[in-house]
Write a structure and sequence with these properties.
- The structure is a single chain.
- This protein is α+β, with helices and mostly antiparallel strands and about 400 residues long.
- The protein has four domains: about 5-20 and about 175-320, Molybdenum Cofactor Biosythetic Enzyme, Chain A (3-Layer(aba) Sandwich); about 20-40 and about 150-170, Alpha-Beta Complex (Molybdopterin biosynthesis moea protein, domain 2); about 50-135, Molybdopterin biosynthesis moea protein, domain 3 (Molybdopterin biosynthesis moeA protein, domain 3); about 330-400, MoeA, C-terminal, domain IV (Beta-clip).
- It contains seven helices and 28 strands.
- The strands form eight sheets. A six-stranded mixed β-sheet has the order 8-5-7-6-10-9, with no helix packed on it. A six-stranded mixed β-sheet has the order 17-14-18-21-20-19, sandwiched between helices. A five-stranded mixed beta barrel has the order 22-25-24-26-28.
- The longest helix is centred in the last third of the chain and has 19 residues, at about 300-320.
């Protein structure tokens, strides 16, 4: 069987960034930029005040001086008067500095007199350039402000608007079809009959896809027949990724691999040396007009499905977005209590990861197996035990993957 790292290397070869396209800036947060952005303006576009106060000629002002007020300037107004000796303009933060003025005295260092017709300077010193941001301080017209391959943050979206960009070229979020398989599944709002279970994987995988940055598409449930699976799989292959849960093990009705093959999906690997999630299946469909779909067959048990998504599908979504194979953040942590790891496979165990006395401490939870969704819902990490069978002692340092 492949190791986790070997499987990830095979996925990385197939998960190429999606072709970039134009996006509205309001929908571009988290996308990877596919073009160089240059400013079309100086910023600020004029000398502006960074304080509320009065605009003056610094060299002509002395302590206690009374200055005539020429006008009041707020952000967006154009100065009409030139400031000279013995006068000033009242000015607000962000307003254009008038001609003749080379400093702004903050309002707390002045007082209004003669019914607000004059201002008295209470405190000095004042020097040229004080409380003024000169034109072009932040950026110059033609200057590069964002480079390709940057992940767009909210601040960058604001910057795009400042330089006149309402749309931007970026790698899109992949569309991800989510398909549950199995005769036993009923919807979450239904009462299961004999031999039935509620479909917990559907909302779980939907949420994981959204969290990873993909755009989920719900394909519902396909029953364990070649005809129904083929119908649903054909629909899923219209997306950038198809994520199936169930039907990939070795049971009589585990038909997913053979139906995928019949629909033209080329297998890359089946089974990885890990617990939970050993039966995971991965392949690639090359459709017409350059369309490629990455296909993941996840085990049906919910914890196995979640662990395989985090280990393999999440990095694939990131790679399609142009971010590279980004998976769960991993950290070294101290084991809070001893843990006996049985079996023969490296194991990702639901755990609690906390900060204690300046160090990270991980506690394996009381996990009861691949169907124990309650425990994984309480976990914020996966404790990694790579060398079964072994007893790990309290105080040992292990790897923990943050969920």
């Amino acid at each position: 069987m492949l190791s986790v790292n070997e499987a990830l290397s095979l996925i990385a070869k197939e998960a190429r960034p999606l072709a970039p396209r134009q996006h509205d800036v309001l929908a571009a947060r988290g996308l990877v930029l596919a073009e160089q952005i240059r400013s079309d303006i100086d910023s600020p576009p004029y000398d502006k005040s960074t304080m509320d106060g009065i605009a003056v000629q610094a060299a002509t002002v002395t302590a206690g001086m009374e200055l005539d007020i020429l006008e009041e300037l707020t952000a967006g107004t154009i100065p009409q008067r030139v400031v000279g000796a013995g006068c000033c303009s009242r000015i607000m933060t962000g307003a254009m500095v008038p001609g003749g003025a080379d400093a702004v005295i903050m309002v707390e260092k002045t007082e209004a007199i003669e019914d607000g017709r004059k201002m008295r300077v209470k405190e000095l010193p004042i020097k040229s350039g004080q409380n003024i941001m000169p034109r072009g301080t932040s950026m110059k017209a033609g200057e590069e402000v964002l480079a390709t391959w940057q992940v767009l943050t909210p601040a960058m979206l604001g910057l795009l608007a400042e330089v006149g960009r309402a749309r931007v070229l970026a790698h899109p979020r992949p569309t991800v079809a989510v398909l549950s398989t199995g005769n036993e599944l009923v919807n979450g709002d239904e009462t299961p009959g004999p031999g039935q279970i509620r479909n917990s994987n559907r909302p779980m995988l939907w949420g994981l896809v959204e969290q990873a940055g993909g755009v989920p598409r719900d394909l519902g449930v396909a029953r364990d027949t070649a005809e129904d699976l083929s119908r649903a799989i054909r629909e899923g292959l219209r997306c950038d990724l198809l994520v199936l849960s169930g039907g990939v093990s070795a049971g009589v009705l585990d038909l997913v691999p053979q139906v995928l093959s019949a629909e033209g999906v080329q297998p890359v690997f089946h089974k990885v040396n890990l617990k939970p999630g050993k039966p995971i299946w991965f392949g690639v469909s090359a459709g017409g007009a350059g369309r490629r779909t990455l296909v993941f067959g996840l085990p049906g048990n919910p914890v196995s499905s979640l662990v395989c998504f985090e280990l393999f599908v999440r990095p694939a979504i990131a790679a399609l977005m142009g971010k590279g194979m980004q998976g769960m953040p991993v950290t070294a942590a101290t084991l809070a209590k001893s843990h006996e790891q049985r079996g023969e496979r490296p194991t990702y165990w639901p755990a609690s990861l906390v900060e204690q006395d300046g160090k990270r401490v991980v506690t394996p939870l009381s996990w009861k197996g691949s169907g124990d969704l309650k425990t994984i819902a309480q976990a914020n990490a996966l404790a990694f035990f790579p060398q079964p069978p072994k007893v790990y002692a309290a105080g040992e340092t292990i790897e923990a993957f943050r969920l």
